[in-house]
């Protein structure tokens, strides 16, 4: 059976992300870092919102597409440089995703909808942009937080948790509290949100 446009788009996003030379080890298996991240985004989105639209599923899968192509150190190593880097990345992610979606035959309206989600336009007002932000935060908390917390002082970890928390919807926050944190991490989370 011929794959659908949606399946082809996901496969092309995965193909692009599989070119990441940075790797991440899970259970003794080495994965291209952004491929693993994008698959975790899909898994977490569908746990969080089982009826997520195809547009939101594509946006989640492509949210970090080819992220390694623009290195953080290409921008000043301060807050302004960081924010500029993030904005440039979002635009690149949206552009690369648009190219893939045009290739598989999606129309302008659908593509524009996905661009808005990836660019996180009208966050807190657009349900799909907010759902993407919630998913990003949930993926960080579920898969990357313990490792991050182990490398940084508690004050910095609490600050990051507080910044993460305010980006999330009430529903996202409730979902975050269901995650399986270590005792120390749970204590930090409680401290951050109290």
From TrEMBL:
Protein name (record): DUF4202 domain-containing protein
């Amino acid at each position: 059976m011929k794959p659908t446009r949606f399946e082809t788009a996901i496969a092309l996003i995965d193909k692009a992300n599989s070119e990441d030379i940075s790797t991440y080890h899970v259970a003794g298996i080495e994965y291209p870092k952004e491929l693993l991240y994008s698959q975790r985004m899909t898994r977490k989105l569908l746990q969080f919102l089982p009826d997520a639209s195809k547009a939101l599923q594509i946006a989640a899968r492509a949210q970090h597409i080819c992220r390694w192509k623009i290195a953080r150190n290409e921008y000043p190593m301060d807050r302004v440089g960081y924010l500029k880097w993030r904005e440039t990345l979002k635009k690149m992610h949206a552009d690369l995703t648009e190219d893939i979606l045009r290739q598989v035959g999606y129309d302008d309206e659908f593509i524009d909808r996905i661009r808005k989600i990836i660019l996180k336009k009208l966050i807190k007002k657009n349900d799909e942009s907010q759902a993407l932000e919630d998913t990003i935060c949930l993926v960080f908390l579920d898969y990357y937080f313990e490792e991050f917390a182990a490398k940084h002082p508690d004050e910095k970890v609490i600050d990051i948790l507080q910044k993460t928390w305010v980006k999330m919807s009430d529903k996202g926050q409730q979902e975050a509290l269901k995650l399986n944190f270590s005792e120390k991490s749970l204590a930090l989370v409680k401290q951050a949100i109290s």
